[in-house]
Amino acid sequence: MIIGVPKEIKNNENRVALTPAGVTEFRKHGHIVYVQTEAGKSSGFSDEQYTQAGATILSTIEEVYGIAEMIIKVKEPIESEYALIKDDQLLFTYFHFASSEPLTHAMIDRRAVCLAYETVEKTDRSLPLLVPMSEVAGRMAVQEGAKYLEKPMGGFGILLGGVAGVKPANVLVLGGGIVGTQSAKMAAGLGANVTIVDISLARLRYLEDIMPANVDTVMSNEYNIRELVKSANLIIGGVLIPGAKAPSLITRDMLKLMKPGTVMVDVAIDQGGCFETSKATTHENPIYEVDGVVHYCVANMPGAVPYTSTLALTNATLPYALQLANLGWKDACSKNEELRKGLNVVNGKVVFKGVSDAWNLPYTDVKELF
């Protein structure tokens, strides 16, 4: 198969979808790999390293899309890429269709085969291609939250861990999944008082067992959240419904209950956000303020630490990408249910229920494709 790796062009997206080590693996299996020039530069990989691994370097993104049977990316195609996508071309990347109606319609119109990292799912319901970036984003959420809590950045002016004789900050984490767990561990490690809320009592029991003494667990419901936001200095949103729009757990009216200078970090922004007042921001302009509350809603947080993120992501995606290249997407998805669950839009049809529900589009059962 002919594999194409374009340079990411989303605002301040510095990751790359394939490392030179990944190129070597594709070449060992007899595949041809084309990489756009400087695609890996921001992640620490030179064109020379890709060439030595067996890739061919192409000058433009148009050339990469034009020649490839499978495009491997990190983030969803943006508008300037739509016209480059060919009928039946396989795109393997993060899509997050439920947060973007224009992207959904564009991929339907291009009749592409869209296999989304975020909905590839194991039998235990874990999301193997979302986990590594959720780990990065969860840890980053605390770093960024701590930074924007500083007074010159618009925050309340509180140190997460406090000092002797001064109480630490209160951190509220919405969701006890990968993002929430990593956020809580980081915040607790810095000395903050942390509260995690989740709707699963079993998950809360598990977190209660593994977390340090400065982490409390509380059942997630509207009443409890309204009470907790009153004393929170930093709120981290990490709720997820795979492939579907995130629920709004923090409503607009709750902002009036918060202290001025409270910081909210919405890690769920890729799936529409879990705060009613969330709107996607970029690393270039990461924050905005509503009712005195600072919102950080960067949609590609791990792009700020591309070396770590690229290695973490490609460690997870490469085995799946090799299956797709070795067998072709139809055979690979037919034989591997994990990959089959990653199919979202195929040749003009929406085959993932969460996407059809999000935009009220006709749904086709993925089994009809095989």
Automatic annotation (TrEMBL):
Substrates-to-products reaction catalysed: L-alanine + NAD(+) + H2O = pyruvate + NH4(+) + NADH + H(+)
CDD domains the record matches: L-AlaDH
Keyword field contains Oxidoreductase: yes
Cellular component, GO annotation: plasma membrane
Enzyme class, broadest EC rank: oxidoreductase
Binding positions (NAD(+)): 134, 198, 203, 220, 239-240, 267-270, 298-301
Family annotation (InterPro entries): Ala_DH (IPR008141), Ala_DH/PNT_CS2 (IPR008143), AlaDH/PNT_N (IPR007886), AlaDH/PNT_NAD(H)-bd (IPR007698), NAD(P)-bd_dom_sf (IPR036291)
EC number, UniProt record: 1.4.1.1
Active-site residues (renumbered): 96, 270
Superkingdom assignment: Bacteria
Gene Ontology molecular function terms on file: alanine dehydrogenase activity; nucleotide binding
The Alanine dehydrogenase/pyridine nucleotide transhydrogenase N-terminal domain, residue ranges: 4-137
Residues binding substrate: 15, 75
UniProt xrefs under NCBIfam families: alaDH
Name of the molecule in the record: Alanine dehydrogenase
Gene that this polypeptide is encoded by: ald
